[in-house]
Amino acid sequence: MAISARMEAMIEGASWVRRMFEEGNRLKSQYGSANVYDLSLGNPVWEPPVEFKDTLRRLLDEPRPGRHRYMNNAGFASARQAVAATLSAEHALEVLAEDVVMTCGAAGGLNVCLKALLDPEDEVIVPSPYFVEYGFYCENHGGRLNPVASRQDFSLSLSAIEAAIGARTKAVLINSPHNPTGQVYRERQIKALGALLAAASQKYVRTIYLISDEPYRQLVFGRSRVPSVFAHYPNSIIAYSWSKELNVPGERIGYVAVNPRCQEKEVLVSALSLANRVLGFVNAPALMQRVVAAMPRFKPDLKVLRTNRDLLCQGLAGAGYEFLTPKGGFYVFPRSPIPDDVAFCRRLAKRRVLCVPGRGFGAPGYFRAAFCVETGTIQNALPALGEAIKGK
Q: How many domains does the chain have?
């Protein structure tokens, strides 16, 4: 065998998101990009905002030398300070630069967290459905993902989380706004989760961390609001990425922030910084750190994203699909009209519409459709979605 048995198993169970993305490339080469309606990937089609481009140009023209060299593995002081200032305002809590580690996106940040926290066979509880690569991230560091059921509306089931906590539980990993469902957890749920974890930590005489994966934090609709995990549980960690907010997923820039009230905060931040190095990230990209530190306070314009969400949801409802209107993020997660969600997504692919089977997120019987695409892509996909539910 040329590769490890473990890697072979990971390839076999690899992300359905990527599989559908690759299927999309095949169909596009066959029919042309304009004739394939790809709703598979959370890869925003829009260009970064003018504020990003202006800041980037200005920084590239600065004559100061050494701006692309190594820095402290935790990142530039200026970037950490800028993040700390934003977090302090958002969470009504003084966050220091020393509480922040700049990372290669939220995915890099989660791997850094899990490397710092997990011993072999430690468990990470995650509400299901969940982003499939969470399982790979845990396995990377000797841990094990422990999915638990969510409520019918995809909100947190505190009873399921409580029942799953045991002597090997090291963390609970949540994601809000949620991929793939678009759910935004309510503040009372986060408060109750914090109380639950405090009691469980005392019961098992070990710190159980709350890790909040928040790349969609700025992408919420209507009156929805993402509550602060920092306000409700001291042993909490936030992983963040600018990928979705600034439409720069290929730039791989994010951070991990540790609650300033966290027990043993200093040693945890040191472990995160070391993990950045030993995992091979070394540090977050120098240029992107400088950009996000120097940009003015930015609030993304959600007008087109909201239009796309509403257009897709109206079309799905008119065709007879069952789903919850997403409160945030890039996705809607309808129930498949047939039990086999993979077969249904293949039915859609025959009509050149690409969606991701729910089993790729631990939820067979559903499928995910992304609306961070051109509005015309959604308009062109709706007739095929209407035909597919009828079995035509």
A: 2
